[in-house]
Amino acid sequence: MVTVGLLYPGHSAEDDYPALEARLDGSVRLPVVITSVGEDAHRVDALLDLGRAERLADGASELAAAAPDAVMWACTSGSFVFGPEGARNQASGVAQALGVPASSTSIAFVDALKHLGLTKVAVAASYPEDVAKHFVRFLTAGGAEVVSMGSHGIITAAEVGTLAPDQVVAMVKAADHPDAEAVLVPDTAMHTLQIIDQLEAAVGKPVLTANQVTVWKGLHLLGPVPSFPGLGTLFGAQK
Prior knowledge:
single chain, alpha/beta, Rossmann fold, 9 strands, 2 domains, isomerase
């Protein structure tokens, strides 16, 4: 059994991961360590503080006890605000601290699109528009074209974690665009791992969510990703 360790900031939808681990019935271990948070706010200054190296290093030190085979910084906004180079530096720091491969949710989105061979995307963001635009720039730097973006102005991760499935479905449908090959949902604070198939059915195309791509990338760091039911197109695309 492989172990993908998760560094997760604060409390909102971290329970998505143990729930998925239980569904996968021993196929993958997904231990979660909660990293420290200064201010729970989707503001660039707060997000730069959230993702600073000291917070990740403290989390990595705690995660070592779980003996992970790979590690993910399970935070989209706390990685994309640093830009591609900064996000890679975050991952490198965690990898060096634990001696295993590491990545982050923002990098996972870019890599998942490349894995699926998709370039044109719509973004269904919970964040305020100025923060969501940082994600758009990150995707663009990774070779994607964002043809539509919906931002919902939710300030705290805690509030995002309370969104009901029908609200998430509505956000995805509202952000979709006829030219988009996939819809991206970039917030690990949002509960999505139990509704991926529902989201894809709502728009008739692949939907990539933050918690989904985080798990996928953690497994991808270790080799071919197994096909798991209920986790959408990404987990059925063997390449």
